[in-house]
Write a structure and sequence with these properties.
Blueprint lengths: L3 H20 L12 E7 L4 E2 L2 E2 H15 L7 E7 L10 H8 L8 H9 L3 E5 H7 L11 E3 L3 H10 L3 E4 L1
Parallel strand pairs: 1-4, 1-7, 4-5, 5-6
Antiparallel strand pairs: 2-3
Length: about 170
């Protein structure tokens, strides 16, 4: 399976990992549990578990914060969606028209849950304009960014939000 240098490299890596674990066997918890803010830039059409992955992972972070006992006021997650991922936020009729598929938008329940949990789900106004979508085409609660995704991301970063590119 492994030959020569590859086998030795893998062996050394395993020894180093084992050594590091032996020196620090504790699992580290987060240290910041208030005023935790993040902005997720989502612009790729990648799916996981039947939904847009760029919605799935912020949902997992949100659930993790809740499991750690953080309250809504302790953290804020903003998901800024644009370019190829924009259609994830369309209502069923607009989703069907855009994709040519029948049935409901598979993201709509997750989007509703995120918004219900206090996550800000936002769509780029330029993406909407380029696709000729209107506010009536969107899922309930989705925020439209008239000035676009990039200006919103910059604004949130200047406000102290941690940037996560998905």
């Amino acid at each position: 399976m492994f030959k020569g240098k590859n086998y030795l490299s893998v062996f050394i890596l395993l020894v180093l990992i084992s050594s590091a674990k032996a020196q620090n066997p504790e699992i580290k918890d987060i240290t910041h549990k208030t005023n935790v803010t993040s902005v997720w830039e989502v612009n790729t059409d990648v799916w996981e578990g039947g939904v847009g992955a760029g919605l799935h992972y912020p949902s997992l972070l949100n659930a993790k914060y809740q499991s750690l006992g953080l309250k809504r006021g302790d953290y804020q997650i903003s998901v800024v969606i644009h370019l190829a991922a924009g259609y994830w936020l369309l209502n069923d009729a607009a989703y069907q028209k855009h994709t040519g598929k029948t049935g409901a938008n598979p993201n709509k329940e997750l989007v509703a849950q995120l918004i219900n949990d206090g996550v800000s789900v936002e769509i780029c106004g330029v993406t909407m304009l380029n696709n000729k979508w209107t506010a009536a085409d969107l899922l309930p609660g989705v925020m439209i960014l008239e000035t676009g995704a990039y200006s919103r991301i910059i604004d949130l970063q200047k406000s102290g939000y941690s940037y996560i590119r998905f």
